[in-house]
Amino acid sequence: MVNGQFKKKLDELLAACRTNLKTVNQDLISRAFEMSVAAHKHDLRASGELYFNHPFEVAMIVAKEIPLDDVSVASALLHDVVEDTEFELKDIRAEFGGEIADIVDGATKISDIFRSHEVTQAESYRKLLLSMVSDIRVMLVKFADRLHNMRTLEYLPEEKQQRLAKETIDIYAPFAHRFGLAKIKWELEDLSFKYLHPKDYSQIARQIKSRRREREHYIKKFVAPIEKRLKQEGLTYEIEGRPKHLYSIYNKMVKRHKPLDEIYDLFAVRIVLDSKDNNDCFIVYGVVSEIYKPIPERFKDYISIPKKNGYQSIHTTVVGTGGKLVELQIRTKAMHEIAEKGVAAHWMYKENKTPIDAELENWVNWVREIFEQKSDEAPRELMESFKLALYQDEIYVFTPKGELKILPRNASPVDFAFEIHSDIGWHCIGAKVNGRIVPLNTLLRSGDQVEIITSKNQTPNADWEQFVVTHKAKAQIRKWIKEEQRRVSVQGKELWEKKLKRQKVRIAEDDFNKLVQTLKFDNVQRFYLAIAEERLDIDAVIAQLVDIQRRATEDVTGKAGPEEPKSLFSKFIRTARDVAKGISVFGTDESFMHQYAKCCNPIPGDDIVGFVTIGEGIKIHRKDCKNIITMRMTISERVVEVSWPSANGADFIAAINISGSDRPGLLSDITHAISSYLDTNIRSVNVDTKDQMFIGQIILYVKNTEHLSRILEKIRKVRGVTMAERFLG
């Protein structure tokens, strides 16, 4: 039983439910209330108040601002119980049944997705969409939860304020828009704006507030002649004037690059008719147009053709007294309910309140279209598509048979083709708009009639991705691009294998993977694709591979393979070691027989150690050589300390591998970047180019490894250079 402290809150919630819901199971809500109180009794919010106040306020939002049913109110009371308390989902299922348990579970999963920042991952975003479609009430509870959190955001640290505000404006606000929850969407946007751009928010809010009396006086004067005429027409109505929402004003200022003083269409008037006849809205439009001059291009009829979220209204902008622009919305009470409360209002007009019925499926059909695309898009690409789908305004275009298709603003004939069917999109070769042949990147407008011309031989063009705007079109084009790349990479693989066979080169998998990584390819397929597109010189790559194989097959004692290629680098290594004049063992200058291990090719400047061999003297390895690391663990007594002799200020020789996109003057820019740093002396340059790509080696004198690192940084900054690394063998 609820004690006196909470009795008043329960009575307040039940009263709100009785006022706004068709039917109320008071026992259900009371039991949910009691469980929520018990579960959160020891918890406090960041503000210091009892945590229970949060689920209570969320339930009040569900009961008053997006009223649906008593199940939603009970779920709102329990939405944090599983996540934050000792109660489990099975407890809710046992006490309240599967329907409420599933809504609470869905709301919890969405919270988990955002908390772990997984919302950038495509699969997690699909989970959010799936839970929303399984029962719309999951998202309605989450909207209420996020709205109350945003209303109390001031108590959280700044970093968390920024993160929650960004999530809200990127995801929750546009979702609310798609669900037709205009009032919720506007408040979420303004609250996010407040924390993301506090200075701009304060400035606009202050200016709007300072002009409140002026605005109210203007609107009163503006609506007076309209009211007089509407009474003469015998219409029952309500007229309200309101300023534009702060975030909407801010967007106009940014878009138009103008200060607030130069944004004139800040006045908005809404006329709501107590009528069931939609034609009365057009009568009101006629009355307004007789009194004030309308701007034709700003007229929108969402009554004849509603938005996908069910929104209906007439929008127009007229020139009021003093030349001020005033936006008007004209709608009936039923339309207003749906405009403000979206799917919740729609639900209330239904007799059969199943979680998803035939009509309600239309509300979330656009969501299904998104996640039913079984594409392998990168998370970033998919996230961009989701956001695009959430934010877009709509246009209305027709097939040659008169069938209506709703597309996002800035859609092209290619978007239209994929909207009809994927096969039509894949084979689209041209389009007619209103009977005239147009380019495929033409922007469609509401009212256009579009006919798609197809050919069996046509396939998607990669350039299409630059101008299509629907997720379906983008996903299908990306799918084709990836399939085409796979097909071409198979050709590259065949070329590679034929060349290896012709040159009688065998390759171990480890050697091949090392080669692919050395050439900076993400995977083997991209390597084959580069070969097929002739962005790689196969002969040069095979030569590099042979060198890797030779070093890999050398045994741990440093015994060389059959022969060492007379490459530029073998000459470089010999020269570098000659300049260093031997090796110092145990800190002395005594002469010891030594050889350099070909498994790691140490050069002056490297940290080195020696390994005492039988019959071949001391084998010199780099300290980070895998072989020497193994030998330290097994036969450490044969590992000795060695070093390069004192250079007395002399420079060492070093080598650099470079590659990238060729262009005129590139080599000059590279050599200038090197020589301009401490007058660095270049010994030799060897560069090969093919098909606008280059690969090469530079041998130069450096004072130490730090000097070399600075040179590498300078080379990497040269336009066209994609890789510059020290040659380490």
Q: Which key features would you list for this structure?
A:
5 domains, elongated, 729 residues, 6-stranded mixed sheet, single chain, Hypothetical protein af1432, 51% helix, 20 strands, alpha+beta
Could you say which structural class the secondary elements and strand pairing correspond to?
A: alpha+beta
Supply the number of helical segments.
29
The third-level CATH topology of the largest domain is Hypothetical protein af1432
User: Over the alpha carbons, how many angstroms does the gyration radius reach?
Assistant: 36 Å
Count of structural domains:
5
CATH architecture of the largest domain: Orthogonal Bundle
Describe this structure in words.
By secondary structure, this protein is α+β, with helices and mostly antiparallel strands. The protein has five domains: 4-199, Hypothetical protein af1432 (Orthogonal Bundle), CATH 1.10.3210; 211-348, Beta Polymerase, domain 2 (2-Layer Sandwich), CATH 3.30.460; 481-553, no CATH class; 568-643, no CATH class; 652-726, ACT domain (Alpha-Beta Plaits, 2-Layer Sandwich), CATH 3.30.70. Helix content is 51%, strand content 15%. It contains 29 helices and 20 strands. The strands form five sheets. Strands 1, 2, 3, 4, 5 and 6 form a six-stranded mixed beta sheet that branches. A five-stranded mixed beta sheet has the order 12-16-14-15-13. Strands 18-19-17-20 form a four-stranded antiparallel beta sheet, sandwiched between helices. A hairpin with a 2-residue loop joins β18 (682-690) and β19. The protein is elongated and about 110 Å long. The model is unreliable at 116-124, 348-360, 370-379 and 560-566 (pLDDT under 50).
